[in-house]
Amino acid sequence: MPAVTQDAVEQALANWTEPCLGLDLISAGAIEAISVEEGAVTVRLSLGFPVDEYQKTLKAAVAEQITEATDATAVTVEVDWSIAAHQVQAALKPLEGIRNIIAVASAKGGVGKSTCAANLALALADEGARVGLLDADIYGPSQPRMMGVAGRKPDSPDGKTITPLDNYGVQVMSIGFLIEEDTPMVWRGPMVTQALTQLLNETRWESLDYLIIDLPPGTGDIQLTLSQKVPVAGAVVITTPQDIATLDARKGVKMFEKVKVPVLGILENMSLHICSQCGHEEPIFGSGGGQRLADQEGVELLGSMPLDLKIREQADAGRPTVVADPHSRVAELYREAARRTAAILSRQDSAGASRFPNIVVDDT
Fold first, then answer.
1. How far is CA 302 from the centre of its chain?
2. CA of residue 268 relative to chain centroid, distance
3. pLDDT tens, the chain, 364 aa long
4. Helices (DSSP H) in the chain: which residue ranges?
5. How far apart are CA 173 and CA 200, in angstroms?
């Protein structure tokens, strides 16, 4: 086993892939400092995504990797993180008070997109980020009920802007707050897109690291407005495993590619049904569809969520799984997907960073 040197520690870290980033910590530029003193190693990590809940697991994994690869007598791992604003579409700039906007889309209805959006937002908040959730489904807003704020009305302190409602540590805004729950929105496209831009721009968001936008199904007016007028840092596409769903999800991926919005990954929902009575597992919607789509489109599979009765019951009750059953395996799957999403986003250029190489002309 090699002696304990900085080079040996760096080599050990270069041989271990951090699960969220999908890279080793050296390649990811996450090592802030390494010190070795009389066989004791101290490593300081600086990450670009929130890890309040995850850092204990991360520290243990890094310490184990170094201990197994070197003669270190003790390993201390310090973890810090900060969230930067990342590049958005050309000619657009991040909105004041919102570092990053992440669109959650499906291109097809009925795949559990809103449930996933709510749980991803809650999971990011659990990790220590400041998170907002914008319900952009003007025709069928569901976030007020899912987030446990149905029936409440937001305030407008100046008559021009609206203060979002806050629950479970997430700021929430929806057209559903401004109408009765059973009132249909009989609006044409231009009215819908205007409503979306007003909800986004006239809401008093407070210093958000991430704003999750729950998009309606399809690739129409709302999605086009989002790509042209809203500075989106990345998108998550939700699908179920069967071919008919992945076919539509592929259209969603292609749509974001056309409008120059990076697709952070695919989240496969309803991937496996586990019988609550006997425990029998069955992929009733097929299997592997999300992974195949991710591989074919060259993006990441962020996670695979089971088809579980409790997920539906908890969302209907206004307490999504991440808050209703935080220690469950399903909640951990949502947290893993949220951390993976934020970590992949952290690998992109920061806002204001040059996309071009630094060219130096030396006249000697």
1. 9
2. 14
3. 667 899 999 999 999 999 999 999 999 999 999 999 989 999 999 999 999 999 999 999 999 999 999 989 999 999 999 999 999 988 888 888 999 999 999 878 889 999 999 999 999 999 999 999 999 887 878 999 999 999 899 999 998 899 999 999 999 999 888 877 666 666 666 777 888 888 899 999 999 999 999 998 877 777 777 777 889 999 999 999 998 899 999 999 998 998 889 999 999 999 988 777 777 778 888 788 999 999 999 999 999 999 988 999 999 999 999 999 999 999 999 999 999 999 999 999 876 554 444 434 444 4
4. 6-14, 55-69, 113-126, 143-146, 189-201, 221-229, 243-258, 289-297, 309-316, 321-324, 329-346
5. 8
Amino acid at position 74, single letter: A
Instruction: State the Cα–Cα distance between residues 231 and 228, nearest whole angstrom.
Output: 8
Partner residues linked to 27 by β-bridges: none
Contacts of 196 (CB under 8 A, 6+ apart): 136, 138, 222, 225, 226
Using alpha carbons, select from 50, 28, 36 the residue that is nearest to residue 7. 36
**3-state SS, residue 143:** helix
CB-based contact 216:137 (threshold 8 Å): yes
Count, residues in the chain: 364
Give whole-number Cα distances, 292 to 235, 298, 353, in Å. Answer: 18, 10, 33
DSSP classification of residue 87: -
CB atoms within 10 A of CB 2: 12
CA distance 245 to 106: 9
- Pick the closest to residue 343 from 239, 290, 264, 237 (CA basis): 264
Structure tokens at 191: 């009215």
Spatial neighbors of 91 by CB under 8 A, at least 6 apart, are: none
* Residue 295 vs residues 22, 264, 338: alpha-carbon distances, Å: 15, 13, 20
Measure the CA–CA gap between 284 and 331, rounded to whole angstroms: 22
Residues 281 and 217: their CA atoms lie apart, in Å, by 29
